[in-house]
Design brief:
Layout: H1 2-15, E1 59-62, E2 72-75, E3 80-86, E4 89-94, E5 97-98, E6 106-115, H2 123-128, H3 130-133, E7 152-158, E8 161-168, E9 179-181, E10 185-186, H4 189-198, E11 204-207
Parallel strand pairs: 2-11, 5-9, 8-10
Antiparallel strand pairs: 1-4, 2-3, 3-4, 6-7, 6-11, 7-8
Amino acid sequence: MHRRFLLTSLAALALGAAGPVFAQSAAVKASPAKPAAPEVELTSATAGKWPIAPQYYPVEVRVKPELPVGSIIIVSDKFFLYHIIAPGRAMRYGVAVGKGELKFRGTAVVGRKVEWPSWKPTPEMVQRSPAKYAKYAETGMPGGPKNPLGARAMYLYQNGRDTAIRIHGTTEPSSIGHAVSNGCLRMVNDHVIALFDQVPVGTQVTVY
């Protein structure tokens, strides 16, 4: 019972009753006379730049001020990743998440960062889809533009062990906003490069 209450309390702190990381606490009250600005403003420089829905473009948003600065929070059901950049402020990015039972949930840390990472399917991936992954089971695939991990990868660890879950780029940017991966969190290459440059090893990542 105590453990269930603790997990519920942590989820409420991060997500809030009214939605992902946006619920207002007693310390933050909305100004009723001021209309909310649109979260995404498309310009000639950004419109159509990525093959994703506009709501998944990077945008700075207001969040609960008690969320730890520097941490990453991913709300899988909404396909959003929040990088908390200051008290009450976050950069929000769109992501693709694991399909079905492959969705990752929990807290981890960034244990490793790699530019243009190589890739090798896990034994579970080979077992699930041998026709697709068996040819890479031994040697894997070197890093580069055709590698499914894209331009950057942040490797998530728990208790010092690699979870096999990564926050990484993708060769399929149109998958952003969908549950299609084998558990990893995909981002557009431009977006994962921007996040990669801001996130040190040891950063806390919480996935809901």
